[in-house]
Amino acid sequence: MTSPDAPLPFGRRYRRLMFGVIATGLLLQLLLALFFLSIGHAPKPHDLPVGLVAGQQTAAITAKLEEGGSLAVTPYADKAALARAIKQRDVSGGLVVGPTGTTAYTAGAGGNLQAATLRAVAAQLDASAGKPPASTTVDVVPLPADDTNGAVVGYVLQVLALGGSVASLGLGRLIPRAPRSVRRGVGHAAALVAYALASAGVMLAVLHGFGVTAAASGGRLYVDMALLSLALTASTAGFVALIGPAGALAGAIYFLIGAPISSASLPWQFLSPLWAGVGASLPTGGGAAVVRSALYFPAATDGAAYLCLGLYAGIGVAVILVTNALGNRSNRTSLRVFDIVTPIAGRHRA
């Protein structure tokens, strides 16, 4: 009879390892397939914010458009007010109902899916009223010639998320070579800030080289990308400081899970409320919002997105500073949560 501690024969050990690898790979594949198909299969709008200029018909048309919960309608007095709301990202687009038909007011820079939805709704309104389709579309915020498919926001997000993960892992291996102290914590935080600033500078230079930033504010775009980079790297480093190397999985989650539900390619209104909420609460979601606004919607404010990024960046840096300040007794690569709780509990017992 084989002892529990005795090494397995080569054949059994090989088969167990092989089955374990296959099972893990299949489980991961199943989970990713379910995730991606659940967010990208036949997307439909949920409370898509649209504006409406319809004069005396406003109440009747609003009731018709909001049936089923696909659209959330906001009335406006005239075309100028509607266009202003679109530029401020208060609504995704709008409809102007006139005597000859319905005109769709779109924002191509906000996403082709929203624009296509508005054009389809305009055609349906005309058909229900017995009018021929007006076939008129006004693109209030069109995509520039250097980004005709609107993919730049997604590319920026993926590059910064991947680069931030690599930087967090690299610093995580380098920093523990120094004794844990307040000085080491400040150095680690300073390195993350320096990386975020440099990362944003490189990304801005590349975007400028391809002409993407021609109509954007370079200063605002640089600050937004630096904040996004710091939110990604600092929060990942904070997880590593608290739970050890497994915390680096946060970077993988941002890249694999956060990017697809960030609204960079698929607007939140076309996701389920669950995925939309998760996407908006991750730094990738906040980053996609501020980068898109910096590129195409300078009048937008994005307060919630800035708050999201600020919390991830600020809490991540704070965790790094606190764990280093309280961890002078240990040079381990991370400070577990109980390393903080134990001395505090001891003082209370005393």
TrEMBL record:
Keywords of the record, alphabetical order, are: Membrane, Transmembrane, Transmembrane helix
Q: Which domain of life is it from?
A: Bacteria
Bilayer-crossing residues are 17-39, 152-171, 192-216, 303-326
Indicate what this protein is called per its UniProt record.
Membrane protein
